[in-house]
Amino acid sequence: MYSDALKTGRKIFAVAPMIDWTDRHCRYLHRQMSRHALLYTEMVVADAIIHGPRDRLLGHDAAEHPVALQLGGSDPAKLAEALRIAEAYHYDEINLNVGCPSDRVQSGTFGACLMLTPETVASCIAAMKAVSKAPVTVKCRIGVDEQEPEEALPELMTRVLDAGADAIWIHARKAWLKGLSPKENREIPPLDYDIVYRMKQRWPDVFIGINGGIQTLDQAEAHSAHVDGVMLGRAAYQNAAILADVDHRFFGEPATEADWNGLRDRMMEYVERHIANGGRLQHVARHMVGLFTGLPGSRRYRQILSTDANKPGAGPEVIAAAFAAVDFAGEGEPVSA
To answer: DSSP E strands: which ranges in 258-321?
Structure first.
């Protein structure tokens, strides 16, 4: 995927991995909005794959492709074992998390704290490359704590590229491992997009993608003039309708009117299958609540999904009722640009 992008000059648009958010139901919804955006799983810890419920952790709908698996871990042997297991699930990319600053992740000595030990990250990448058929990539910060990004980021990149990493996604903020919550780490450390641009200038033949604080497709397009890929996180989750214009603006598809009735029908069918397999409507509906932010009727839409989807026996008809509350012909544009 990344080598093809570099050869053709085609950019990659991705939706970021987000713990507790980008589960299989979220990804299915996002895939209905864009056929080509690269989707990511939540971070899955290597130990959980080795010892836990593999199908629940790794299973996904065939419609989700292209989809990447993000792994958490710092033990090369365990990461390699987890990858051998994950091979049966045919992910399009394997990504190592070197950016999450949460205490839970730090206690396992992985995530952003790995920025402090780039040699460990390199060993992990080498072990993963040895067993993976899919591209192996890294998602990192520009530094942590008192690190100087101009030194820490190039050192990490040099080591992981020498170890065989196929691409690097960079969240353009430092992470403070002590004193800031994960939420604060997404907002307080200043963004430094220029350092990511400089890394691309330094490594012109390496796929480098950017992440962090990007709110609109206009901003994403502006970044794509400097790097190979752009990754949206919460902006894509909180208003998934923004993804409806991604295929046109980033992948050259013809501009078309969004088919909201078709989306409704596909999500109702998906929910029906999920419930038949023992799931609940709320597992899916919680990801759809922000879909029509800004449209007339969106408040009532949110109310229906937030309340009725939790009721015992709730089924696909709740989605139909929620969509019926939205005035798609009214003023207010569901696709943010």
So the answer is: none
